[in-house]
Amino acid sequence: MTALVIAEHDNASIKGATLNTVTAAAACGGDVHVLVAGHNAAAAAQAAAQIAGVAKVIHVDSEALAHGLAENVAAQVLAIASNYSHILFPATAGGKNVAPRVAAKLDVGQISDITKVDSPDTFERPIYAGNAIATVQSADTTKVITVRTTGFDAAAATGGSAAVESAAAAADNGKSSYVGSEIAKSDRPELTAAKIIVSGGRALGSSEKFNEVMTPLADKLGAAIGASRAAVDAGYAPNDLQVGQTGKIVAPHLYVACGISGAIQHLAGMKDSKVIVAINKDPEAPIFSVADFGLEADLFAAVPELINLLP
Ligand SMILES: Cc1cc2nc3c(=O)[nH]c(=O)nc-3n(C[C@H](O)[C@H](O)[C@H](O)COP(=O)(O)OP(=O)(O)OC[C@H]3O[C@@H](n4cnc5c(N)ncnc54)[C@H](O)[C@@H]3O)c2cc1C
Question: Can you list the domains of the chain with their CATH numbers?
Answer without folding.
Answer: 2-166 (3.40.50.620), 191-309 (3.40.50.1220)
